[in-house]
TrEMBL record:
<feature type="transmembrane region" description="Helical">
    <location>
        <begin position="178"/>
        <end position="203"/>
    </location>
</feature>
<dbReference type="Pfam" id="PF02378">
    <property type="entry name" value="PTS_EIIC"/>
</dbReference>
<dbReference type="InterPro" id="IPR003352">
    <property type="entry name" value="PTS_EIIC"/>
</dbReference>
<feature type="transmembrane region" description="Helical">
    <location>
        <begin position="391"/>
        <end position="415"/>
    </location>
</feature>
<keyword id="KW-1133">Transmembrane helix</keyword>
<keyword id="KW-1003">Cell membrane</keyword>
<dbReference type="InterPro" id="IPR004501">
    <property type="entry name" value="PTS_EIIC_3"/>
</dbReference>
<feature type="transmembrane region" description="Helical">
    <location>
        <begin position="435"/>
        <end position="458"/>
    </location>
</feature>
<feature type="transmembrane region" description="Helical">
    <location>
        <begin position="264"/>
        <end position="287"/>
    </location>
</feature>
<dbReference type="GO" id="GO:0008982">
    <property type="term" value="F:protein-N(PI)-phosphohistidine-sugar phosphotransferase activity"/>
</dbReference>
<feature type="transmembrane region" description="Helical">
    <location>
        <begin position="78"/>
        <end position="98"/>
    </location>
</feature>
<dbReference type="GO" id="GO:0009401">
    <property type="term" value="P:phosphoenolpyruvate-dependent sugar phosphotransferase system"/>
</dbReference>
<feature type="transmembrane region" description="Helical">
    <location>
        <begin position="224"/>
        <end position="244"/>
    </location>
</feature>
<protein>
    <recommendedName>
        <fullName>Permease IIC component</fullName>
    </recommendedName>
</protein>
<feature type="domain" description="PTS EIIC type-3">
    <location>
        <begin position="13"/>
        <end position="460"/>
    </location>
</feature>
<keyword id="KW-0472">Membrane</keyword>
<dbReference type="GO" id="GO:1901264">
    <property type="term" value="P:carbohydrate derivative transport"/>
</dbReference>
Amino acid sequence: MENKKQSGFSKVLNESVFPAIMKFVNTKAITALKDGIVYSMPFIIIGSIFLILNNIPIPAVSAAITASGWGAIFNQAYTASFAIMSVWAAVGIAYVYARNEKVEALPAGLTSLATFILIQSLSIANPLVAAMGKTGTGVSNAAGKVVWTGTQLANYIDKAPKAVQAFMSQDVTGVINLTWLGGQGMIGAIVVGLLVGWTYTAMMKRGWQIKLPEQVPANVAGQFSAMIPAGIILTVAMVVYGLLSKFANTNAMQLIYTWLQTPLQGVSDSLGGALIIAFMVPFFWFFGVHGGMIMGAITGGLLIPNTADNAALTAAHKLTLANGAHIVTNEFYNNFINLTGSGITIGLVIFTLFFAKSVQLKSIGKIEAVPAIFNINEPFLFGLPLVMNPWLAVPFFLTPVVVALTTYLVIWSGIVPPLNGVAAPWTTPPIVSGFLIGGWKMAVWQAIVLVESALIYFPFAKKYDSYLLAEEAKNAAEEVKA
């Protein structure tokens, strides 16, 4: 009866639920989002190196780097790579969308970039305003030492003529605001990238382009072909910017951030959000569907901005939950929920190497031992297998949930600091990745997570091993009789 129920449940999932999910994941928009946002990853990882150099977790070394002026140089490199991740996303998403539609892709990506910049307010608040007064930040030197307090600065400014004071306190115009180029602009970049990719390819496919004679070189003709779609898109973006600026005193990036990104990031950064993500990855895998790919595509656009926000706080030496640091980031997903592979199967590796008695578990354990160090566990997923294996379903589902719960709580309670925004590649070995993304305390916690996995998997793996051992003995006896 139980098998029939399980069979019926599996049939519903495989025939109704999963096809609908996969249809959604494989839509043009989600494919462009998933593959386009990857273009930002090299810059995020490279920028993470400079972020680490500017925030060495040894106070004396960190102070020496800051005093030498190299801290500002490292921060410049971080800003030009990691801190403008939304630029790479805006270009990459539109590029992939056009490429998949067999349209010349680079002009679409560049049009997306121009649109992304156009809908922003090209100004920043005057730094003097924030620096002046009793609560002002004052003026600091390259080493971060305040050389003029906010009160002193205000007293000097007050002595200048009114016209000069007004000029010095005006917003700085004619600049690109870095705020929207980083994590805060990610959802805006996704929206722009998808809309530009879709409209650009639609116009190109309908022939809305300037066609030059065959004698004109292809590289020149291609640029003229892009003029009409790009011109229409930028004109529409200009009208949107103008209307919002004139009648609402805001811009599209601010609206997207307030109405869309902030609520979604709040959900993704909650305990409930972390537990759902942790459960859904092995749930999909159990039925043979790539849970990491599905959940990565769905959550990446939210968790990567969380990472960027934490990186910005780290760069400013203000990484605390009180200052708005996130608990659940893309590194929480990669280096905890998927530590040593989906299902956090390191506990199963330990059992197969040191405690298993069946030939099947011992053999597959030797194959998986090295890949597990680099967070790859396909040999277990399909070779053990974990897919559709009721013996190991409970620890496979439970371990990521327990790890997500306990990791969330130790960060929330202050036992370990928030993740610092460093983007360690997902193949970075455990403990090493913990140190990179959160210092020695996070490395220690990652080691504890490995122990959690071992404790949860052990009793279930032992029962499964006993079952396999009995089956192997039975098969051996039948072979002898034959």
